[in-house]
Amino acid sequence: MLIGIVGKPNVGKSTFFKACTLANTEIANYPFVTIKPNRGIGYVRVECADKFFNTQCKPREGFCIDHNRFVPVELLDVAGLVPGAHEGKGMGNQFLDDLRQADVLVHVIDVSGSTNANGEPVEPLSYNPENDVLFLENELNMWFFQIFLKVWSKFSKQVALEHADPVKAIVKQFSGLNVTDDIVKECLRELGLSNEIAKWSEQELKMFASLLRKKTKPIIIAANKIDYPSAEKNLEAIREKFKDITIIPTSSESELALREASLKGMIKYIPGDSGFEIINEDSLSEKQKAALSFVKEKILARLKSTGVQDVLNEAVFSVLRCIYVFPAGVSKLADQFGNVLPDCFILPKNSTALDFAYKVHSDLGDNFIKATDIKKKQTVGKDHKLKSGDVIEIHARG
User: What is the count of structural domains for the chain?
Assistant: First the structure.
């Protein structure tokens, strides 16, 4: 699972990334702070199965707080993109190529309108963030189109000459973009395109590339800097205009402040919560008290969260529609080392018990006999579709 964090310079991408990962990332108020992509581990928040069994888990990866399990996902923060990125402007081609393996993209925008198209600071509300939503979609679509256009003439003619299956040929040729048979078939069906791909017009190819991009690199928008005065006015406008895109208001700076304060033992805070508890008020400076008060009153009381955790969860479980499943045994929830419910796996939608077996270990998949739904104490077959929160035991030969 790889989540790409994208957007123009100076909108708070690196702050968003650091808030998710607490990685040592450079943050500054000027364009192109990030040149090489930053990789780090963020976490999606789910209800831990230990609550069902009235016990306490011990994760091998991630962590658990008050029965809230935080499951690791990889994040990739690429340098800021500007209009014309697909033509190489602002090192755009390099930055776009960094996104090839991303499963979903978080587009961080400055919803306060205080940065212009090139990421330069301007007066708040003087720039329309709707432009950024449109520009990124266009850059990504044109990036895909150019990847296809470079090889399409020769490739499509070869497919025709060899009487090859066009779907499988496209998947093989563009496997680096996370293209699958089902996705290609969906695109062909939705656009009503012929399987004789050599006869496609350039416009048809552009339509196909754009839809393929949408399905392989779906976007969720983090409407950042929502803490700026009047930013909500812009938020309402972009939600009205882009009803088919998930848009979540965020304050990355607030989330970063809360997580760093929690790490230092100043407060108790569970990422994604609507509040926090000050552990020792006497240890806080007046400046720290004022900052925490601002977050509590201006962000959490109004929006119920900083939005950062919500973005990651929505990206994985709503946009990608993934599920999470715990492996365990009927007679024992712990592994051989005594770790209770040590693992939690994220799987694609419609995953079966057999898919889960392969996710845990290839040998379990190869030698699959049956599975047991531990919560329901029911035996299920290999084609049984799993749902989020399931606790499954795999039975295999040998």
Answer: 3
